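Appendix B: complex inputs.
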Amino acid sequence: RKEVEQDPGPFNVPEGATVAFNCTYSNSASQSFFWYRQDCRKEPKLLMSVYSSGNEDGRFTAQLNRASQYISLLIRDSKLSDSATYLCVVKKNTNAGKSTFGDGTTLTVKP
Amino acid sequence: DAGITQSPRHKVTETGTPVTLRCHQTENHRYMYWYRQDPGHGLRLIHYSYGVKDTDKGEVSDGYSVSRSKTEDFLLTLESATSSQTSVYFCAISESGQRYQETQYFGPGTRLLVL
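Resulting structure:
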């Protein structure tokens, strides 16, 4: 079993739709959580960190459920420019900053 | 954007030849990382460095070596390239490697094809 698992998709949604991605992690010692966005043939870039209380940045909302060991990303009012692969990242702060990446969920937003 | 460059950006080489990839940063960050990204495997850590001359292995280090003689440069060497090392290689940096919610910043990547 992979340490971080994501539904690979693809998710194909119309503009304006709301879409949610989940990510599960197996190591209960994980302490920091992130969502990265990766455009085709580009490097991953931080989308948002995920805090215990949940956090929102515009149309994006991230949630953490430590008891069930999953994080989620909700995108409201999807835009064409949201089309990308979304990577879930989990980190144990005591392990030299080494992060474990999920394989990514691909989102395509269509007109 | 974080000041990270990688060179070369694309390379085609033949099986058995040595290859060196370079990562250069202008952020003076302590930690530097090399990842490879392949379909179905996501990003996997090859090696990382926590200071000049201080390096350690990641999960897929076989066939790779690294060196860091200056804070700003982290080199990845494929000692004898094999077709299984055809991949996209990303360098990343982070400031201290230990802080809560500290993020990594990635370079633009190097596409390597081993024939």
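The interface with chain B takes residues 31-32, 34, 42-46, 49, 51, 87, 93-94, 96-99, 101-104 of chain A (CB under 8 Å).
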